[in-house]
Amino acid sequence: MLTLADRHTSQIERLTQELELAKDENAVMEMIARHASDGLLIQDIYARIEWSNPAYSRVTGYSAEELRGRKPQELLLPPENAMSAESIAAFKYDIASGILDSVEIVRNVRKNGEYFWNQLSFAVVEYDGSRDPKIIVISRDVTEQIEREESLKRAKEESQFRAEHDVLTGLPNRMKLNSFLSDALREASAESGEVGILHVDLDHFKEVNDMLGHAAGDAVLVHAANVMKTHTRRNDLVSRFGGDEFIIVCPGVSGFPVLERVAKRIITDLRQPIPWDDKNIVLGSSIGIALSNEGSREKEELIKQSDAALYEVKNNGRNDLLSYTNEIGEIVSRRTELSASLSEAIANNQLGIVLQPQFDLSTRTVTGFEALIRWHHPQRGLLAAAEFIDVAGKNGRLVDVDAIARKGALDALCTLRDAGFPHLRMSMNVSAQMLNRPDYVDELKWEVEQRGLNPKNLAIEVLETILIENNDNATTRSISALSEAGFAVELDDFGTGYSGLANLARLKIHGVKIDRALVQDCPQDQTAQVILKAVVNLCKDLDLNVIAEGVEYLEQAEFLRQIGGSVIQGYGVARPMSLENAVRWLRNTNMNTVLTASNYISSSVS
């Protein structure tokens, strides 16, 4: 049985062991604190440092003595991040309320002035017998991690930017356009607003590339992008849609007039000369405009509408603007329907030619015919070439249409020869695709020889716009080869392009067909008279044959005869007719009465 002394001794031993254990625990804790890789702080409620470990000194550059009694923000916060009195008061309140954020990452500065990212973990500890709690802070230098994350973020952002932007102009590309337009339409729908689109195409851009090189073309694209950005708002999107096409998205617009004003300013500025080396580049632009409404809340539909309006602008002379209407939509639907049925029409022999005579006013004789392609549509009747040639070009059937027209023209020439008119000449149009085929001239020569025809009785009409838009060696070689083979080459629709004189000088052209646009205002308009007379005189000086198209009235014919443009073509002479009717017309018509006062009314309205 233990005595009281024994029990006392045992208690003393136990207390001694506990004290020794406590000493060991303190030593262990102190050792851990001193060798920890993270910085450790103990602060009072006023954020003054009471204790710090060596790791904190290594991170910050300040010794324990320099830190003791100081607030970290006084030493480590850069001037631009200094805490205001309000922030300090809020910090104290958060501590007192127990709502201090447990982890925070701040940008600090070391004693040597070097910036670093500091991850701070906080804990508020209540001490028995202490009125105020203590703040335990763990500090970790996460600079490498943050910089690595920021580098990855920048790389991702740069990759995203490259994926959504055009390298040359820096403009958003089609991907960015699609997402931006979708968002704009969704917001507009929610707010009952409207979104406008300007679909911009640079006129004759291909010629710049072909004649001056791609560096000049790139300079033009960058210039055009800057012009468009100048005339748009901060919340608009100017994007490069592809090639020489741009699409501008204008959210929150209030109707077509606003968009048309912007388009006019862009067209005006893009007409200004662009300096390049020692020369100026001059080009124009065409703009199709569409506006979202109940029928066009989808981005694909809105872009399709702007493209349809742009197509009509380019089809009507370019360098202008046009806003989408339902009528344009009907034209597009009609064109789409024709495109779908064209292949079937070719297979079923629905395409053929009609002939329109060319008449010499001075000799009162027919000099030949032009073969015009027509589509005998089962539902819509006889369709002129203008209604389906573009469709054929877009779906890759233009060469087939050309071949049909060529066969029809050559067969018609044979029929006219056999009917007793061997002197007549046949004119036929050729597309750029056909003209640029390397075997085109050889094929034509072979077909002419097989029929026993003379090349001098065949004239190949080349649109002036073909020469402008296909200014390459293939076109020039084909024209030269045609001339050398004995075929006549004529420049069709002369006067509608802007570089006609240059083409006359550099190519082996035998004649020109003056476009009806230059004829229709004569002789009433004095300016038209002067222009037409100058063109005829120029052609005569260059020893070129002249045929005036679109002659409908006696006065037009008489004026042309007086200035030396005696060969004419148009409704005033005769409308296009079938081969059978052409033979009958040649045999039965008194040529002395063609386009004279005695038969003017009947011939012009027949």
Question: Could you describe the 3D structure shown?
Answer:
- Residues 193-326 form the GGDEF domain.
- Residues 99-154 form the PAC domain.
- Residues 25-81 form the PAS domain.
- This is Putative diguanylate cyclase YeaP.
- This protein is an alpha/beta fold and 606 residues long.
- The protein has three domains: 30-146, Beta-Lactamase; 167-324, Alpha-Beta Plaits, CATH 3.30.70; 348-605, TIM Barrel (Alpha-Beta Barrel).
- It contains 24 helices and 21 strands.
- Helix 8 packs antiparallel against helix 9.
- The longest helix has 32 residues, at 4-35.
- It is elongated.
Write a concise keyword list for the protein shown above:
single chain; 606 residues; alpha/beta; Beta-Lactamase; Alpha-Beta Plaits; TIM Barrel; 3 domains; 8-stranded mixed β-barrel; 5-stranded antiparallel β-sheet; 24 helices; 21 strands; 48% helix; EAL_dom
Name of the CATH architecture of the largest domain:
Alpha-Beta Barrel
- Specify the overall morphology: elongated
Poorly predicted runs are 598-606
Helix content: 40-55%
Can you describe this structure in just a few lines?
Keywords: Coiled coil. Helices cover 48% and strands 21% of the residues. By secondary structure, the chain is of the alpha/beta class.
